[in-house]
Amino acid sequence: MSRSSRRYFARSFVLQLVALAAVIALVIWLATNAVHNLASRGIATGFDFLDRAARFPISESLLPYTPSDSFAWALAVGLGNTILLSMLVAILSTAFGVLLAQARRSHNPLASGLTAIFVESVRNTPLIVQLLFFYSALIFSLPGPHAALNPAPGVFLTNRGLYLPWPMFDHGRWLLSSPITGHFNFEGGLVLSPEFVAIVVGLTLYSTSYAAEIIRSGIEAVPLGQWEAARALGLPERRLFRLVIMPQALRVIVPPMTSQYINIVKNSTLALVVGYPDISFVTATTINQTGQAIEGVAILVLIFLVINFAASAVLNAFNRRLASRVR
Amino acid sequence: MARLFLASTAILALLGGCSQAPAPAARFGGTLEAVRMRGYVRCGASGNTVGFSTPDDKGYWGGLDVDTCRAIAAAVLGDKDKVRFVPLNGQQRLTALQTGEIDVLPRATTWTLARDANGINFTVPNFFDYTGFMVRKASGAVRAQDLKGASVCIQTGSVTEVTFANVSRRYALNLHPVVFDTTQASRQAFFSGRCDALITDASALASVKVTMTTNPDDYRIFPADDVITALTPAVRHGDDRWFDIVKASIDAMLMGEQLGLTRQNIDEQRSSGNPDIRSFVGKEPGVGAALGLHEDWAYQIIRQVGNYGELYEGNVGSASKLKIPRGLNRLQRDGGIMVPIPFN
Prior knowledge:
The structure holds 2 protein chains of 2 kinds.
Chain A: H1 3-40, H2 71-105, H3 109-123, H4 127-141, E1 149-152, E2 155-158, E3 161-164, E4 166-170, E5 173-177, E6 180-181, E7 186-187, E8 190-192, H5 194-220, H6 224-232, H7 237-267, H8 279-290, H9 293-324
Antiparallel strand pairs in A: 1-2, 2-3, 3-8, 4-5, 6-7
Chain B: H1 2-16, H2 23-27, H3 31-38, E1 41-45, E2 54-55, E3 61-62, H4 64-77, E4 83-87, H5 93-98, H6 113-117, E5 120-122, E6 127-136, E7 151-155, H7 160-170, E8 176-180, H8 183-192, E9 197-201, H9 202-212, E10 219-231, E11 234-236, H10 240-258, H11 266-269, H12 275-281, H13 287-291, H14 297-304, H15 308-315
Parallel strand pairs in B: 1-4, 7-8, 7-9
Antiparallel strand pairs in B: 2-3, 5-11, 6-9, 6-10
């Protein structure tokens, strides 16, 4: 190392050290202020509230919940809904993304044209507007429970949701629970509420439009010579795609898809505009019931960090495995 | 999103609160001085509750809660129009008060001990209400027990959520909640037919019934339970003087009604020989100075805003569209539970 580069190194080291010290000092100063201000305003601090009964209702959840459960469990229930929603949207948007990518690459002008229109119109309008549109369309256009559409035996479609027969474990054996008419609503069976359907459909279409473009660009990044070489070997189209093109395309696809999956998790917080109780909705209600905003937001930030770190760790490991197989 | 944004803003305000040099005095006490220096009172408002808190088509704010705020401005600054209204949703309102974004929160906020103990002080109830269900008459429901299995639209950020859970459990109704983050969303969902009932304060339901339906007679409102809620303007902890001023301003409207003082007759009554009226209008000095206000503060409230009865009838009672019977909100003398505190 020459003298000038050593001096440059030393100077940048000192600068970084100063910057780090400034950031730490700022954090300490802000934290001290917060503690002081909270105390002087008589606002309770700490996480004791998590053990208390939540008392507010949650409209629907994967995990069982009653208002007598604790705030901690209410948050867990919200987290369960967020994970259900994100996983479902990730799987659906990937599957539809592959289909749309193929359609847009096809030589059929109808297929590629329609796909292009879909992708551009969905990508260029705000997600929140799309969600409100789907939700209003569902609750205003579907009939009430007394005029329910009945497309198949045991299946009812109303503005209260889609009711389906569903197996349920009861008294030690599996039974098929079918929806039956009550005074106000159908009871029994499985209900897909308009809130759930609106957020799943809205988020899926939005994410699909991005996934389709990522997948298409991945496929088109594979050099034409690879296609020709594989065809020259006499590989049938399907095996050609699976054995030659996809492994190479995936190297291009996986890194942007990782951030796409993370976006799905983050965008799932828009569930609250259509009344689906995801983790951010439950956290906001908790903040309102307890008045403890700092703790609530801290929990929310931590949860999203953990989910998204985990997701990107898994996908990055997958990406490394793909990248290491250079032939 | 708006709620999380506000929560983050609130946190930033808490974090940064100490940094603005003159602010601490204004924030932890000294609200009166801060209001005088600023020249206007900042009030939390709802913006879409007709009769309580809403701007008219010219942008002029009106309603029972708004007039309560104007009364405070008349008492403190001598002018009912030296006010600014900050529209807040149910989620934002308490944080906005705690962080000093507003001076007083007269926004249909239910007095609960948990809220009272957690950074804010409730002053004097300006409206007694109950939680109600609104249903379509065609559903045949006339009381809470008739709603077994019904879907109910609720907005989050309110005591109503807890009341809903209690009612459902108490009568084993197995109600299906559909929870939204704004009042507009929950009302829209109810009118779309997504829900069989809409639950919120009965006063707000009365306002929804006359303003959002084409035929109000198709809808029915009934109580959800037998609990009376006290909608009470609140201030933040740590400023006893401001707490007293807000209490006194609301009390002056009640006492004005008790003494028979109205917008019309206050000027002639000002020279009355009645000692109660003399100390009310400030002819017998003392109360104003003790509060840190001009001696004519209560006179200004009645002259510019009116007594409680005038406020009630004009905004939500017989002279308004809502026509909510006075009921519990009558003075104790007249059979209600509103109790004016004597001035002497």
